[in-house]
Design brief:
By secondary structure, this protein is of the alpha/beta class. It has 15 helices and twelve strands. It folds into two domains: 168 residues, 2-Layer Sandwich (Bacterial polysaccharide co-polymerase-like), CATH 3.30.1890; 230 residues, P-loop containing nucleotide triphosphate hydrolases (Rossmann fold, 3-Layer(aba) Sandwich), CATH 3.40.50.300. The longest helix has 47 residues. Keywords: Membrane, Transmembrane, Transmembrane helix.
């Protein structure tokens, strides 16, 4: 029996393709940079090569390995075209071409830059391609190099004729001298005369041969169009090349990016559900309460987060929650405050505890009610030093800051919890503390709460930080309920806070203490 056949596997491919496209489109700036570079390259190529013209001339090289003797060699093997191609590209030929074009010998090197010589296989035709700024100059250059090469080859042939003639004439002089000395032997005289006649015929044959190196079978003409495509084609080519470069750079950036860019990446790094994805907000984050006081998608998402935690992570609607982030920069306080307001809106009795040593930072930013606003039923249930927070239409909840209790600091200690008062089993407690990977306070609190909600910035938090946070929470015995991803805010102050981490006021010299409702035993951790 074979395994089960998944009929819906083929529908995963479009999803993977869309996911890949989304990852590439996250780096639109890199793609735009690649397109700009491609267009600039096309424009540069347009300016440098769009107005160049190429003319072609062809020369048939005559086949003769030894033009002054009879040889039984095939015509195709009587000349080395590779050698002739190198000679045609030599400086001597370039100097002759410069003179034919009416230029100084020093311009020969510049002319060689625009010359290209080719030879097809099994062919005795040399092709001269000359590129210049104008059509007429291109034609003149192609013809000049063809004529210069033929003149150079003719000069070499004539030099060979002169060398061969001098050699035969030297032999004739030797035979004539011997003939004068030999006057008595008629047979010897006739032999010398026959040899002399042969040598003179040889001189005549050498001088009668054609010393031309070849023939021009095609003369260069002024081209009607540039040798490269026009500027529209070059710009289109640059655009296509830039787009390909931008996609490649975006893919590399996406492959090397270690930050969390989507809910799937956060879920894979933590192996826990994503409880909520906060949409981008507007304005400053100084005004923390949104549930019950503001509208919009962000407030509704925070309210939905409370409903989900109330139905899954908190038994019977009560419990202890720790809201913490891996590092600074996430909206930890905003999530904790609005989670408390949303739970209060659901009818729960909520206590928000600020476990950060900077005790005045959170309470100073909340809309606190005056002490005379308390009802007689509030006093017995509220911890000492707590204040009531006005959550607008959501109601109100208590806020307790981790203040000092007068106990001296322990040398070398680490700090968070001193004692837990009893009598608050029915209260929902939301605790917010310092970043998990920067301070160990949260690890002490994870053992005393029912669940931990991790808050991370979308596009700012690294996946390695999420994995480390998961390992620390799991190793300390805590329960990670899930993660909340924050897409950030568009306000000016938010951008400034991201560039420079917020600085909370220093606590007093005495040990800061957080009081949490609830158990019989106590956990005391001091901070040096």
């Amino acid at each position: 029996m074979t395994g089960p056949i998944h009929l819906y596997d083929r529908y995963d491919e479009p999803d993977q393709l869309r996911d890949q496209l989304r990852r590439l489109l996250r780096h639109r700036g890199v793609i735009a940079l690649g397109i700009v570079l491609g267009l600039l390259g096309g424009a540069a190529l347009t300016l440098s090569r769009a107005h160049t013209y190429t003319s072609t001339s062809e020369v048939l090289v005559r086949s003769t390995a030894d033009p002054f003797g009879t040889v039984s060699v095939a015509a195709d093997n009587q000349v080395s075209m590779a050698t002739e191609q190198q000679i045609a590209a030599s400086t001597a030929v370039a100097v002759r071409a410069a003179r034919l074009m009416g230029q100084a010998d020093g311009k020969a090197t510049a002319l060689e830059d625009g010359l290209r010589i080719t030879n097809q296989a099994k062919s005795q035709v040399l092709r001269f391609e000359f590129t210049a700024r104008t059509p007429k100059r291109a034609a003149r250059g192609a013809n000049a190099f063809a004529e210069a090469y033929l003149a150079d080859r003719k000069a070499r042939n004539q030099a060979a004729v002169q060398r061969a003639t001098r050699g035969v004439e030297q032999q004739i002089k030797t035979v004539e001298a011997a003939q004068k000395k030999e006057t008595e032997d008629d047979d010897a005289t006739k032999a010398l005369q026959s040899q002399l006649d042969t040598l003179r015929k040889r001189v005549a044959d050498i001088n009668s041969r054609d010393t031309d190196g070849g023939d021009v079978v095609r003369r260069g003409e002024a081209p009607a169009r540039p040798s490269v495509p026009g500027w529209p084609a070059l710009l289109a080519l640059g655009l296509a090349g830039g787009l390909g470069l931008g996609i490649l750079l975006a893919w590399l950036r996406s492959a090397l990016d270690t930050r969390v860019r989507s809910a799937d990446e956060a879920r894979a790094a933590l192996r826990t559900p994503v409880l909520g994805l906060l949409p981008p907000g507007h304005g400053e984050d100084d005004d923390l309460p949104a549930v019950g006081r503001q509208g919009g998608d962000r407030a509704e998402m925070l309210r939905a987060l409370a409903y989900r935690l109330r139905g899954t992570g908190l038994p019977a609607g009560t419990g202890r929650l720790l809201v913490v982030s891996p590092r600074r920069g996430a909206a930890t306080e905003e999530v904790a405050v609005n989670l408390a307001a949303a739970l209060a809106e659901c009818g729960d009795e909520v206590l928000l505890v600020d476990a950060d040593p900077g005790t005045a930072a959170l309470t100073a930013r909340l809309p606190l009610l005056p002490d005379d606003a308390r009802t007689p039923g509030d006093a017995p249930s509220l911890p000492d030093g707590s204040r009531l927070v006005d959550a607008g239409t959501a109601g109100r909840f208590a806020c307790c800051a981790g203040g000092s209790t007068g106990s001296p600091a322990r040398t070398g200690g680490a700090a968070a919890v001193h004692r837990l008062p009893a009598g608050s089993d029915s209260r929902t407690t939301v605790v917010v503390t310092r970043p998990l990977l920067e301070h160990a306070d949260a690890l002490a609190l994870t053992q005393r709460v029912d669940g931990v909600v991790l808050v991370a910035g979308l596009g700012t938090t690294r996946r390695d930080d999420l994995r480390r946070a998961h390992e620390l929470i799991d190793g300390s015995g805590g329960t990670l309920l899930g993660i909340v991803l924050d897409a950030g805010r568009r306000g000016r102050l938010r951008a400034v806070l991201r560039r420079r981490p917020a600085h909370r006021p220093e606590a007093e010299t005495l040990t800061p203490v957080v009081e949490l409702p609830a158990q019989d035993d106590t956990l005391s951790v001091s901070r040096g």
